[in-house]
Amino acid sequence: MIFATITALLAKLGLGQQAANRAAPYVFALSLLAAAATGFALWLHFHDAGVVERHLAAANNQTLGRTIKANEAAAAEQLADQKILSDLQRSYADALNNPPPGASPDPRKRLDCQRLLRAGYREADLPASCGYAGSGGTGTPPHP
What we know:
This protein is mainly alpha-helical. The chain has helices at residues 2-12, 17-97, 107-118. Among the domains are: 1-38, no CATH class; 100-144, no CATH class.
């Protein structure tokens, strides 16, 4: 049946009946081969697309995991920085608004004293105008 259809098509194309009968099996084999090659190419295309999608999903998940960790670390650092800034603001506000007894009436000097404390000077090494008990006033820098 299939060979008869192929033979009829070949005859319509201008091939003689005897030549069409001999060529029909070869045309059928070539058609099967072309169909198999097309099927393999389609399978390969969709298989590769799936592999690429899985690879991209894995890479995206890995990137997302790294991003989450980086965001958590940045949030922790930002929280620590905010605490440090809050402590600094509180100490400077206290230096301005609640100076220790005997501190200089000049707010700039009181802020300078607070900055010296933040830089590592001991209260005992601050000038007497800072108002801390036991002020030696030597002004020596801190020792590491």
